[in-house]
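Reproducibility note. Readers wishing to regenerate the assembly model reported in the main text can use the exact inputs given here. Chain order matters: entities are listed in the order in which they were concatenated for prediction.
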Amino acid sequence: MKQLNSILSFILLSLFVVSCGEDDAKSGDKRSGGAMASNAAERVYVAPGEHDEFYAFLSGGYSGNLTVYGLPSGRMLKEIPVFSQFPTSGYGYSEETKPMLNTSFGFVPWGDAHHPDISQTNGETDGRWVFINENNTPRIARISLETFETEEIIEIPHSAGNHSSSFVTENTEYVVAGTRFSVPYPQEDIAISEMKGNFKGPLTFIAIDDEGRMEIDFQLKMPGFNYDLSHPGRGDSHGWFFFTTYNTEEAHTLQEVNASQNDKDFIAAVNWKKIQEYVANGGGQEIDAEYAHNVYDHETHTATSTMMKKVLTVDPRDVEGAVYFMPTPKSPHGCDVDPSGEYIVGNGKLSTDLTVHSFSKMLKAIENEDFDGDAYGIPILNFESTLAGTVKEGGLGPLHTEFDADGNAYTTFFISSEVVKWKLGTWEVLDRQPSYYSVGHLMIPGGNSRKPEGKYLISMNKITKDRYLPTGPELEHSAQLYDISGEKMELLLDFPTHGEPHYAAGISADKVKANSRKIYRLDENKHEYAATSEDATKVVREGNQVHVYMTTVRSHFSPDNIEGIKVGDKVYFHVTNLEQDFDVPHGFAMIGANTSELLIMPGQTKTITWEPKKAGVWPFYCTDFCSALHQEMQGYIRVSGRNSNTPLTWTLDGE
Amino acid sequence: MKLSGTIMILGSALLLGLFFYPLWNIRLEAPQYPDPLGMDIYIAGIEGEEEFDIQNIDGVNHYIGMKKIPKPEEMWEFNVFPIVIGSMAGLGIILGFLGFFGKISPHLFLGWLVLMGVLGIMGMYDFNSWLLEYGTDLDPKAIIKLTDAEGNPLNYKPPLLGSEKILNFTAHSYPRTGAYMMFVGMFLTLIAWITGYRTVRTKNS
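Running the prediction on these inputs yields the following structure tokens for the assembly.
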């Protein structure tokens, strides 16, 4: 009954706050009318042909993809397919990219993309790669910021709900993948009610090499709590990683109530340097696992999927001083570390307050063995001994915090639908601005590194309602851009986002744009089926498989007439784009193909299959308006009956 | 004669710059080419300003039926020009040395300049006629055939010097470092002649 009361009062409170928020918004509109409004317009206006100051990489959530935006304009620049099939380019349909979506469960065509994070060097974003996690079928992807394509995906074995991921350490030593839904470790057939003590929440540390290649270094076998979010230490706390937990109750049903019973859950502090050393010295136990490691090569333009069979598991109790729990109130969600690395913020989502732990106090408490019992043999530090301070009455339902370079923190409050600015050290609330509506994540470029570029903040809101022209029941989510360069935050812009952005990562455009590739070099194309000139085009029959080595150049295919294909054949169109000019892709579409189109960048080779079902003459064409003669960029394939003797021929202009 | 001989050596040696720097450049600007396409014309061949510019100029030109930009082995000029320039530079340097030691009359410097001038004009004439052929000898199966008001096929010849609009492109044709070095060099040989002539006259009077 007590719980019911508190839930009810929450609902009432949130209604109250929402209605207050509306009043605020109205008066805000009045205030910001006229001169102010045009001033905001100027500050987000990027003149035609000019470039934005920042790149923002927004997760697409249930779209499975990553979207690229420019700030401050809020213009969407690209959607990068990561965990979901993308018929626009053929990702996940083409023979080359199908292996990218391979998993231990077979081909998974969809994913739930969550938390993008940019690689770092010395605690600063370096613009080499973006990492992003898939929550549903646990995976981590790496996207190149040279090609803006997904280059690698690694599956996380023994995990479920890969949510407290994919955050990188300050020299990109590791990217982590946590477990939100604790599960039997390894999986086994047991009664769900036997969860408590039997389920585990492994935390996986993936080592990144200089080329960005990912390899699971070790998996920490943690108690079966729900590891929700995480961030690395930085500066003095470099070498540690912090994870929020909820459901330390280990409830397995009606979690909204049963996982909300403990007054405090934990932030797990993991000394990964210690475990890295332990593992390097032969520590840990190799256990069976099954997980896919998929790598895309920009020279062969082809992905390969390798099934891995072993993973190194470490029991945290075996490494002295490696893991501690810091009690943190109210099912903390975001786990955010300030630029100095001293403060660890637990965003207790069922609270009005924020709990901030001190790293130096934590070290002292460990030294003094200031413990308050243990959980499954892992020491629990005394709450008071690690507490740096509490931000009182920030709002309702704190979720995430980011930082600027001037010692301020910015926290989103989901229930009261606002962004709140407060001061590190004094814990005093400095400003609050409504967000429309029910803000989830927020992002300041570099705001989770040692060097925030604190000029803008974007909030990513879960509820859109009336912010844009209505588009039926289903709406895109909405983001808001605030100027945070002054004492008070100023709302400058609304823009719709694609999918459901769970977090974003931002970086100065200058760190990225010079490295962005314009073409793939034809002389570096090592695709097995590439035809790098029209002279090399051919059609080869191997039983009922027919390989067409085809080229595109403005404005024709070579060959563009093919005869001798039979019903029942499986035709592989290996299409190489011979162009070596920036932004001249060609498309390829075949009538009735049960696959997708291809969009082939200059110098690239892509393959799509077609299984003709009917005799006849069937056209194909270029789908990208490539040139003045684009409409003429078309061809025919003659399909004969299953047992016909039509000879296999291929021509261009009769030759 | 020492001064004029030195200037003569210097002036004719500047011709050697043509082996390292382009003589001429034609650049094509169009709305969809924010980075213009460009070709650098050297005495021994044509190169793109950017790696793939020649391929891309050929790609654009094929619509109007223009021939591909010639490779060095496809034009005799690219074999002969280096020999001519090399010989003239060598000859000028030898003349300069002989002048330096007072073995020859400075009028030979003028002779060299006149010869160089004649060869230069022949070269420009040849270059212009190549441009004319390139811009008018079009594939009869060209995709785009445009005619002027009188019904004659359009002429796509880029200008020899200056800027001109050709369909969606603006072509800019201007000398480059190699040519400027040559001009300065030729001017220096003129100075060499004048200086030498004055010295000789002073001596004689």
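We highlight two features of this model. Chain A touches chain B through nine residues (CB under 8 Å). Chain A has six helices and 46 strands.
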